[in-house]
Specification:
single chain; 566 residues; alpha/beta; 8-stranded mixed beta sheet; globular; VWF_A; vWFA_dom_sf; VWFA domain-containing protein
Amino acid sequence: MALVAVVSGSYLGYRQLSQPSCTGSVPLSVAASPEIVEPIKAAAEAKVAAGAGVDGRCLEVTVQAAEPVEIAAAIATKHATTLTGVGQGSGATVLPDVWVPDSSTWLQRLEQAAPGFQPLNGASVATSPVVVAMPEPLAKTTVGWPDKKLQWSELLGQMTSSDSPLKAGIVDPARDASGLAGLLALGQASAGNGNDAARVGVLRTLALNRSNLRADLMAKFPKSEDPAALADGVSLAALSEEDVIAYNATQPPVSLAALYVEPAAVALDYPFAVMPEADAAKGNAADLLFGELTSSPAYRDALAKAGLRSADGSAGGGFAAPTGAPSPAAIAASAPATGGGAANGLDAAAIGRALASWTAITSPGRMLVVFDVSGSMLSPVPTAADKTRNQVMVEAAGRGLGLLDNEWWLGVWVFSTELQGSRDYRELVPIGQLSKQRDALQASLGEVQPVDGGATGLYDTVLASYLAVQEGYQADKVNSVVLFTDGQNEDANSISREELVAQLKEKSDAKRPVRVILIGIGNEVNKEELESIAAAGGGGAFVAQDPAKIDEIFLQAIASRAATVG
């Protein structure tokens, strides 16, 4: 039996050429995170060499290294959507039959954004705990490494302390699974303390030293044990255990300690995702490869040499565990269960909230917030201790305002019907830089009071707010209208919905794009109406049928600004 390596670009494939039982071939393309490519290639080669086939046809496997964010962007683009902070995919990216990203969080984000994306299998074929990487000298002096165990809540305190010697960094969590895992862990720690200020403080601290690429962040670690160099470089960052092993293998001037902070962050779990478009033959071929990845001792050892653990958290021969690593049993106890993200305790809503908060912090915009003050906003919300819809809305907006940094530009309007003469809307605070009017904006929320008996003048208000934002357009920011409403248009003297949609399309300007984001509150809104208006305004519509969940919806709306198409 003869084998040949087929090389094309960054592909390396293995194909069986002479096998009497072969009547053809079943090609299977695999895209995997770069750090796991070599073990998968070796496993594919072994499976082909063993004469594996499907229905009398020989197995042909090509394995390509691909950054997860690139494949995720391409999948999202194919499904006419985008992921927060990721943007459009490259038209040159060819989607594989099997995708092995570094984390199930990619699959969860895609399934949330594109319900039509339903990959098969999804079980883990490797794992790498997410640790906090810290230069060894600082780890010894600041946290007592390797003897002392560190809690995320303690780390939170270190990061937010005014006299802390630590400088935190992060790889953009919207584009990197390790960064996202660290962000989720810190978010849970701050939520456990009930400390919103600490959560916002950590987000802003991380944003100061964020990198788009993991290699860029690694380059920011200190290159000398000189105190000045240690103080100037990045002191801690959420990375994978494999990252730390690979970094230290280069024998850097200052090695990194891997801190296994408790409770364990979401580990990278390398799901084996068979794409929905794969036909039955490719699906069977994928099953053959998956069997090799889950049963072969050689694959387990290949993972170990690449600095990765097996799916159950154990390690093969030759694994160089970092100093202070927990026992294999302890790692295995916190490893992802077969089945991917949901089994690993991941929550799509929590991921969405974390990334939305991150986007609000790191992507300053120019926004006009418009509040519905019609009489129906006085309706009580049973799930919020009978607070009114208005109270729930204003409280959520206040918390959202606390997230935004001083680079934002913000203004506030209210609307009902005939609030100012025949106009349905009234300006409370003009759009201006938050650094100069934060107090005025906070105070204006107290003026957002429902008008007893007031109706909903939706259409005129949407058009007026759109034009107001467009008039003062700032090219270096995402310009948007975020409008809250709990009803449908009730102004008989206003333009019609058809006229509003036509006007929004007519006034749209590719050189001055404005996003219209509509947030429906309660079950009396017409979602189809909101969606048609938002689409014409280059934005999106969100509905919080339970007004008590408006915080989450508001964050989604803020995050959606950069994901909409003008």
